[in-house]
Specification:
By secondary structure, the protein is an alpha+beta fold. The chain is built from 4 helices and 4 strands; from the N terminus they run βααββαβα. Strands 2-3-1-4 form a 4-stranded antiparallel β-sheet.
């Protein structure tokens, strides 16, 4: 299943209600499961972003719908990256035209 990395920043609302973050994370994980995906991990991080989430989704459309659902709740803004494993890299490189 395709892998996605979500970089999340707390909104003002999310910052004010940070104590309820564990409940929101659990709820979001259940939503992702309902959409056919799976949360692999979520991390509170230091730096430009507040959270990094890693998950699997059956399609780009499901990943996009999930990101929209997260953002529409008002606690985080997301940037989602589609990730390719080291096993997928050779197949991607084979697509490149020969120099």
């Amino acid at each position: 299943m395709p892998l996605y990395i979500s970089l999340m920043k707390l909104t003002e609302q999310g910052s004010k209600d940070f104590r309820n973050a564990p409940d929101r994370i659990e709820s979001s994980s259940k939503l992702l499961q309902k959409l056919g995906g799976k949360l692999i991990g979520i991390y509170l991080v230091m730096g430009e972003y507040d959270y990094v989430g890693i998950g699997e989704c059956p399609s780009d459309e499901v990943a996009t719908a999930f990101a929209l659902a997260l953002s529409s709740a008002g606690n985080v803004k997301t940037t989602t990256l589609k990730a390719f494993s080291k096993e997928e890299i050779p197949g991607i490189l084979k697509i490149l035209p020969k120099p």
